[in-house]
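Summary: Need help interpreting a holo structure output

Steps to reproduce:
1. Submit the protein chain below together with the SMILES for nicotinamide-adenine-dinucleotide.
2. Request a joint structure prediction with the ligand placed.
3. Inspect the structure token block that comes back.

Expected: a single structure record containing both the chain and the bound molecule.
Actual: see attached output.

Input attached:
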Amino acid sequence: MKLAVIGTGYVGLVTGACFANLGNDVVCVDKDKARLLLLNKRQVPFYEPGLPELVAKNITAGRLRFSSDIAAASKKAEVIFIAVGTPPQADGQADITAVAEVAKSIARALKGVKKFKVIVNKSTVPVGMGDFVTKVLTDNRVPEKYFSVVSNPEFLREGSAISDFLNPDRIVIGASNSRAFNVITELYRSLKAHIIFTSVKSAELIKYASNAFLATKISFINEIANICERVGSDVSEVAYAVGMDKRIGREFLNAGLGYGGSCLPKDVSALIHVAREAGYDPKILASVNEVNEYQIDAFIGKISKTLKTLRGRTIAVLGLAFKPETDDLREAPSIKVIKALVKGGVKIRAYDPAAERPARKILPEIDFCSGVYDAIEGADAIVFITEWPEFRDIDLIKARKLVKQPYLFDGRNIYDPKRMREAGFKYIGVGR
Ligand SMILES: NC(=O)c1ccc[n+]([C@@H]2O[C@H](COP(=O)([O-])OP(=O)(O)OC[C@H]3O[C@@H](n4cnc5c(N)ncnc54)[C@H](O)[C@@H]3O)[C@@H](O)[C@H]2O)c1
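--- attached output ---
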């Protein structure tokens, strides 16, 4: 099929490259000229394993192109994906400016075009956005017989985005008619995935509900961790056994510094806003965010209490990205921890395998190091924030010799406390 994908971020570029690889003819559109320049040179503007190769392969095969011309791409395409950002506003509600802008551009482009098009919203948007996009088109005199708006939320995770896109647990297609549903089903047919057909409004809520549930699991186990600390239990043991219950499941039951990133925090806040707008004050969701914020404050509190004073200390921070295998720093716990420590007078020596480049822009006040051992040399404490695999294999004897003081704050509970103590470290985890 001929496809247009508007927005070349984590979701749009992965969607475009994967659909091209499945044999479709894809034009990826962005308004960011610098980004397009890079993409045309076969460079991916962010870190996502396997994506540069997939993009290059499909450019070479002539199935993937990049453009700033949303009108031309929309006119040619049978299916138009909207995959632009929906960042949070100060009050938590989703900022839908970019989606609205794109909808207007598509509407202007499709005026007078007498071919049926499916417009697919892949961005995470408040319930009712499908109706909104439909209205933008009809207001611009695009007759309803020539288009249909579908909600097809994306569930990929940064760091494993390609494999998640190609092997999804489910594909949700929210459509108001079977013609549009059939077009999108056909597009996904080769993935052999479980397809769920819903109303547009249900599909929009499914995305928020899924992310809110994942966030709830994290805050739930963090709440249990906070109880563990006070009663002498170890949350790792508790979570393992609780998660073995098939009704509960092991995933997203790791206590620590809580969730960050471009999705969970903003989607929980946006859902709270959606609920309140609709006249319901959500109780669980508000607490989910509250526990998440508490985790960071409590962690900073532990560091300052243990070190007695922060002023003049040097702390090695290992891991900056909001999770491993990405360079995304949006809502990353590292930023809040580092800013608080710097405010307290700490000198930070940080290392992250992928996120140094974007971090330099956000955290100009810290020192960036070339590796783990470089960062920890002479440090009063080591603080682990992101569970990058390479951090699990540190030479403990070498590390112990390099630090000035042996305090180790494990914000992700990646280490065995006993092993750390045997290596001479004073280990402080979360809920253990
Ligand atoms: N990142 C994820 O892991 C993830 C996963 C699932 C869903 N989502 C959702 O998908 C959407 C996109 O997220 P993302 O992380 O890919 O965003 P992103 O910020 O990485 O990328 C958005 C892109 O859209 C472009 N853009 C903005 N306005 C535009 C316009 N008017 N015309 C053309 N291009 C425009 C930007 O330049 C940017 O390149 C969001 O709603 C997000 O919540 C994200």
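--- end attachment ---

Reviewer comment: Residues 2-198 form a domain with the Rossmann fold fold (CATH 3.40.50.720). The radius of gyration is 23 Å.
Status: needs-info
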